[in-house]
Please model this.
Amino acid sequence: MIDLPARTRRVSGTRLLDLCRERGIGSIVDPFMGLPMHLNVLKRHGIAVHGGDLLEWFVRAGEGLVANDFTILRDAEVAEVVEMLPGRIYPSDLFRAWEGVFFSEDQCRYLSVWHANVHALRSDGQTGLALVGLWHVLCHWLLKARHPDEMVDVPPSELAWHYIRETERWVVSNGRRNTVRRADFATTLGAVRADAIYLAPPGRSGAKRIDARVWMWEAWWQGDPYLNVERLYRDTVFGGRINDDASYDRAIADVLAAGAAPYVIVQSSALEATRFERLVRAQRPHIEIVTPNDEEIYIIGKK
Amino acid sequence: MRWHREHDDGTGIPDRLRWDGIPADAAALGIVHAFLEAVEDPSEPREPLEALFALAAESGRRFRVELVRAFRAFVGGATPDWDAPIELELPAFDEETALAGLVARVDARDSMTEGRSERLAAIAAALAERLGLDAAQAARLARLLALGRAVEAISPDDFDPLSRFAREHRTSVALRAAAIAGSVPRYAADAPYLAASAAWFEDGAQDPRAAVLALAVAADALPPADAVRRLTAAAGTQLDPGVTRAYLAGLGAPS
Model:
């Protein structure tokens, strides 16, 4: 059974929206976007959003939730994702390495089928939406393995259907150009012009402490159950020796220096706020700190 | 409050937060809210045990597994048993108190308006009693009217209720209050009285409940030193003379 640590950072789109509206910010870029639900919320409210990440499945999800303005998965298309299509040959043992460790035989077979079906989808938007829907299924299964008697049994295809259909209501257009890219922060920040940069900086040794559900889904998307996501971070500013304070500060300073936007919004907590305030002040002289609660402290720097 | 509709699996509103990204207080509020919604559903009220089963079915999806377990222990006692009936006594929901509390909170946003709706309710109730009308309904109408004023931008100092220039403003407040009341089944019957409260007596016959409300609004907003003189002057044109007489008699003023 896999450990599911409770360390999820609260990235609230509506909170960011409040901050943007108060300052007349009309576009924002997040170079470490993760699963871009917050960008989707901002997009829904008319802000032009741009995101970047190194994990491909985050970017694919962004293509469904951020860049995609109108494409949804209709019933027939969802059916083509969640069930084995007659006449098609599936590599049913693609995720056999996870069998008996994380998932049952049946679940591993479904993961293989869905992997093939999602890769066969016709548009980036549809692929992104299916990917996000099925990610919820993976999380549900892992949680169910920990609490088998406290969660209802739902057949895999029905669960997948439910979660993929759920994504339909998240598709929205804001009449602006919204982008996502698989790139490091420098490329992302150099490629788009925005009024503000939003940073929820990766923690120290973030790649080592990445949530199991996140790397497993990247492994699923890549079709490689043995995938190690640490290698994706190894060559970035956050991949080297950032366990010492000076190296971590240098990495954050590099990110802040790479952006030319008038505003920088850094999300921090009570524990790290002083450090980030010092780092932001070095790049943006006018500092404002918004503290809705101890877990959410926003350090807003303006040129 | 912002996140009490978030779901543990990340499919809720407004931010689609997931897992421990949802504040514990918001998650707790969410499960209690869902439980009470199930128990007090007007179309299909459920027994507490039934409502709890409905929550348990959402364990790991809408609600965190540990939260559902803790809530079951909280509701059912220290040794929760899913098969044992739950003896839970929910206090009856007192909508009048809730409405009074809501408008009092709205008034309290500004020191100029603090306690205004309760003053208005007290005047309306006393006057209705004197006229042989339902005092509780009069107080409720006064509080609903106060909800209609909740978003007004004009400060009370600028609002002379007997001025013709204020008529448009009064009408919009009354219509807003009527719309709010009309949207709640329990208060839907009060909506016409609220809408009529901005009408002037000289425009045609007015329901006594609306007339009481109109007079209460005017009496509350006028300076005490001017009230008797100006209300007397407005009787027969803007205000119902019978209702005005009853109010002035209550003050001990000569009619």
Summary: Residues 16 and 106 of chain B are 29 Å apart (CA to CA).
